[in-house]
Write a structure and sequence with these properties.
Largest sheet: 7 strands, parallel
InterPro entries: DEAD/DEAH_box_helicase_dom, Helicase_ATP-bd, Helicase_C-like, Helicase_put_actinobac, HRQ1_WHD, MZB, P-loop_NTPase
Oligomer: single chain
Keywords: ATP-binding, Helicase, Hydrolase, Nucleotide-binding
Shape: globular
GO molecular function, one term: helicase activity
Strand order of the largest sheet: 3-4-2-5-6-1-7
Radius of gyration: 26 Å
Protein name: DEAD/DEAH box helicase domain-containing protein
């Protein structure tokens, strides 16, 4: 069963009651959450129930060796996450045999977070879990909990491989929420091509957060990155300190603001959560680490700096305020981004609309293959297992045998390597060995970054923020697998940019769209990070574009693309429009708008446009999944193409700039320096594609 209702609607109670009944009857419970913070909060809630028979414990990366041994022997309510299930519980299933035999229920909390490639990995981990349970003779009930989601039963079936009943009626009482859409003003600053820049959403957030905290309004400010969380907290504290000096505000006021994000020690995160609940903290700048069901009741307001990716996330974040039934304030602060611009000018796209369907693709061979190897290492695979793992299993198994990863015998498929099969699946990354992030002067390991992300985030010259400390990357050595950093205090941020080529492998589906054609299929993408932008941290002002020398990367993935014949675009060229610039602008804007129709971020997808593509012989615009094998985003774009491309055109048209800016057609990732771009041409080109009457153009 999946329960898909709003924030603070009683979902936790709906699984706690049957779970505790099972524990009292001698059974065990496995609870899965996407974050450590949520599991820790659930453990606290369980402890407050004071049930003597309940032996609950978290089993995650922070759990000591001694605690792990006690949990295996004695715990009857284990709270963990997909990572630990994948790497520890399933590979060492024999050590947990008593727990598996008595397993009555598997709770998958906040399951709407399992989307895209990560969700596809979790789907296969849950199939491996079902197989382990069957080995020990248990058939536990799956109970999934989610924020309101479109087609929750269908999503839950794809996630677990099981038929699912759905509960979607939300009758919980709640106070009124005043929701504001806030667009920062255009400034006198100029970016590429002289385009005007808006004031950064993080700067607006810091202003609003300081105003709310000084008025004793308990507030969460959600931002998009760890760096931004630190920046907003620091800026807010500085502005509150100015109030202390200038108008005699209480001296302790700046100390009532902090940052919260992944990467902090567990005990530090718990202290921050407790301080927010108690009121010792009035303002917290956070990543989406606090989006999920952590109980931070008593909040009055939520600031959301930039579109959080999905309507589900938007309502989850807004729902953090007013959890005790009181009225609340929520503010969505638009970034300099096409989607944010579209939303603040088209509120009907947010209010009164169902949330998105959650996209994942468990049959992606690049996901399925590693998990079949992991399953075979746990228990040899048999023909009876093919149904559990899905219709693509047989073909993928043949490829694994050919590659020497599995050995096929009369009774099934066997893992014969001495290596850990689980190392083949990087469930939160995109493949490749992790890059060690190291401080040069001390040798201190600051963290790791997966290899594809390293090209964008820890390239030479990048600004890197770790727990409030700012570093500059002195060198990225891909062969050694290390990024060397040195402490610094730059007044700018960095954004990597790449150039991309794309070739069509196969068109899987197509249909006419206006005078052109829409396609969905397989492509090969070659991309190379070629430079990085330096922008002033507080204003976004462009300071420079520094070249980089990094190797190209190639991936096979899925894409949606549209073409227009020469007969349809010749009149535009005759009118003096730059067809290449028009296609380029339409590509950038469509990438920015796809997250409204597919559960993705613009950094999960990429695009290529050309006036004449060699594989199609036509003007072509591609948008592709940025993950090996695809993630389902482009396929969603194909199915919602008319709505998606109509919204793209409306986003360009509604922007108040004259020739194009980051709010409509410019992209921070563009390796061509956002040249050429033709805003008027993009409007005309999309009008032709969508067969809009010329008088509306």
């Amino acid at each position: 069963m999946i329960i898909a209702t709003g924030t603070a609607s009683g979902k936790s109670l709906s699984y706690l009651v049957p779970a505790l009944s099972a524990v009292l009857d001698g059974g065990t419970i496995l609870y899965l959450s996407p974050t450590k913070a949520l599991a820790a909060d659930q453990l606290r809630s369980l402890g407050e129930l004071d049930v003597p028979e309940l032996r609950a414990a978290t089993f995650d990366g922070d759990t000591s060796f001694e605690e792990r041994a006690w949990i295996r022997r004695h715990a009857n309510y284990v709270l963990t996450n997909p990572d630990m299930l994948h790497r520890t519980l399933l590979p060492r299933h024999t050590q947990w045999s008593a727990f598996w035999r008595r397993l009555r229920m598997i709770v998958v909390d906040e399951c709407h977070g399992y989307r895209g490639v990560f969700g596809s990995h979790v789907a296969q981990i849950l199939r491996r879990l079902r197989r382990i349970c069957a080995r020990y003779g248990s058939r536990p009930t799956f109970l999934l909990s989610s924020a309101t989601a479109s087609e929750p039963g269908t999503f839950a079936m794809r996630l677990t491989g099981l038929q699912m009943a759905e509960v979607t009626t939300d009758a919980s009482p709640r106070g009124a929420t005043t929701f504001a859409l806030w667009e920062p003003p255009l400034t006198d600053l100029r970016g590429e091509g002289g385009a005007p820049l808006r004031r950064p959403a993080t700067s607006e957030s810091a202003d609003l957060l300081s105003d709310l905290v000084s008025a004793d309004v308990r507030t969460l400010a959600f931002v998009r990155s760890r760096r931004a969380a630190e920046s907003v907290a620091l800026t807010t504290r500085a502005r509150l300190q100015d109030l202390v000096v200038d108008v005699g505000a209480p001296a302790e006021l700046p100390g009532k603001v902090a940052a919260y994000r992944a990467g902090y020690l567990a005990e530090d995160r718990r202290k921050l959560e407790k301080a927010l609940r108690s009121g010792d903290l009035l303002g917290l700048a956070t990543t989406n680490a606090l989006e999920l069901g952590v109980d931070v009741s008593g909040l009055d307001a939520v600031l959301i700096a930039g579109w959080p990716g999905t309507r589900a996330s938007l309502w989850q974040q807004a729902g953090r305020a007013g959890r005790d039934g009181q009225d609340a304030l929520a503010v969505l602060i638009a970034r300099d981004d096409p989607l944010d611009t579209y939303l603040v000018h088209h509120p009907e796209a947010l209010f009164g609309r169902p949330v998105e369907a959650i996209v994942l693709d468990p049959d992606n061979p690049y996901v399925l293959g590693p998990h079949l190897c992991a399953a075979a290492s746990e228990i040899p695979l048999t023909p009876d297992d093919l149904e559990i793992f899905g219709p693509a299993t047989k073909e993928v198994l043949s490829g694994l045998v050919e590659d020497g990863l599995l050995r096929e015998r009369a009774t099934g498929w066997f893992w014969t390597s001495r290596e850990r099969a689980t190392d083949l699946a990087d469930i939160r990354g995109a493949g490749g060995a992790p890059i060690q992030v190291v401080e040069m002067s001390t040798g201190r390991l600051l963290g790791t970054v997966d290899e594809p992300s390293a090209h964008m985030s820890v390239h030479t010259g990048a600004v890197y923020v770790h727990q409030g400390e700012t570093f500059l990357v002195a060198e990225l050595d891909l062969e050694a697998g290390v990024a060397l950093l040195e402490a610094g205090t730059p007044e700018y941020t960095t954004f990597a940019r790449d150039v991309t080529d794309i070739s069509v492998i196969e068109s899987l589906r197509s249909h006419p769209l206006g005078p052109g054609e829409l396609h969905f299929g397989s492509v090969e993408v070659t991309s190379q990070v070629v430079s990085y932008l330096k922008r002033r941290a507080q204003s976004g002002e462009l300071l420079g574009d520094e070249p980089l020398d990094l190797p190209p990367r190639t991936l096979r993935t899925r894409a949606v693309w549209w073409t227009l014949p020469a007969s349809a675009i010749t009149p535009l060229a005759e009118d003096g429009l730059d067809l290449g610039g028009a296609a380029h602008a339409a590509e950038h804007a469509s990438i920015g708008l796809l997250p409204l129709f597919a559960t993705c971020d613009r950094w999960d997808i990429g695009g290529v446009s050309t006036e004449l593509h060699p594989d199609t012989g036509l003007l072509t615009v591609f948008v592709y999944d940025g993950h090996e094998g695809g993630a389902g985003f482009a396929e969603r774009g194909y199915s919602r193409a008319l709505d998606w491309l109509t919204a793209t055109r409306e986003a360009i048209a509604s922007c108040e700039c004259e020739r194009g800016c980051p709010s409509c057609i410019q992209s921070p990732k563009c390796g061509n320096g956002n040249e050429p771009l033709d805003k008027a041409g993009a409007l005309r080109l999309l009008a032709v594609l969508l067969s809009i009457d010329p008088c509306e153009v």
